[in-house]
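Thread title: Can someone regenerate the structure for this chain?

I was given the following input by a collaborator and told the matching structure tokens would be attached. They weren't. Posting the sequence so someone can regenerate them.
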Amino acid sequence: MRNEGFDEDVIFMARTALMNDPVLLKLQSLESHRYLSPRISVPRRFDRWERFVDSLDETRWKQDMRMSKESFGKILTMVSGHRLYQSSESGRQQTSVRKQLMVVLLRLGSDGNGASVGRIARLAGISEGSVHAFTTRFFDVMLSMEGDVIKWPGKEQKERIKDITKNNNGFPDCLGFVDGTLIHLEYKPKFRGLEFFNRKKRYSIQTMAVCDPDRRITFFATGFLGCRNDSRVFGSSDLGRNLDKYFEDDEYILGDSGYSLEKNVIIPYRDNEKGGFTKEMKKCNYLHARTRVSIENCFGGLKMRFGSLRNLRCKINVKEDLYHVMRWIRVCAMLHNILLDDVDDVAYHDNNYNGHTPQPRSDVMDQEPNVSSIKSAKEQRVARDMASKKRDNFSKIVREFEENKK
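Best answer:
Regenerated them for you:
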């Protein structure tokens, strides 16, 4: 077909000029290559590392994998049947699920330079990209089962927890203990960086958990800015925003003085209580602290087993990076629950870690507490008075329980 108004020679010359345009030629060259720089072949050790780790005795195996061989087999059975481990999108056969799991556990359990992606890749004889791929795949598989691993106790479980706390320390109707912890970051986040700076002068993420007397996590929330305090984190969490969904009648949890006194959250007496701080109050505070020590042990065990949580080497440049970090922390919490029966402190003492930093599942870190904002000043005052009377009643019950034990 003839182009009206255009000479064919002119059109031909224009097309020839475009084809020889250096900018277009450069773009065509870029599009024809997957990588901008030459690919460097990575030396591989194939399966030597896997065979070496398998040959280790139980204690040395735990120092690398952070769990016993029996527990490793249990988790391997849990995840190996998942569709993400069946085949790759490209149709290529995946690395064995066993080796993928070993790589991820080594990464979760390492801190400092030991957590370097390059180091782990060279140890396992794989590429750095494979380390990231194995980690992301394992997180996807584990988080698909999160609701079955970390869950609020049902009716039977509630009665069991109440019986334990009452028989051991005299607190009736107690469903567990709440506290928070700081997950320190190795690098300053570029995404809302200053808001992650905490009172300890470190960049960190606030995480909150509720556990039962067996140190089993029953509620978990992470992803909060490091500058937030325990009370604000609690009010922003689903637990704090929907107390009626989690508690019935006189049920409650014990928290430290970083939380506000609520109907369902009982905290210790403060030094500035009206009427003075009595010896009875001091005694009650001691029993209160002795009872909720389970949550301190819970965080200590979590960070001792998974050393990456003591100083997380993940860069948070955009919001999606924060979501990756949150997934990391949640998976470690899930593994903590699964491995509660796998306890051997000796196997984890090679890192000389002496504890955790006490401080606090919400994927929306910008949510504001709604408990205080919805209630009027009068309603807040009435709620505090009711909680205070409830605490005074507990104080008498606990003191009588302690005297009867003597």
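The mean pLDDT is 82.
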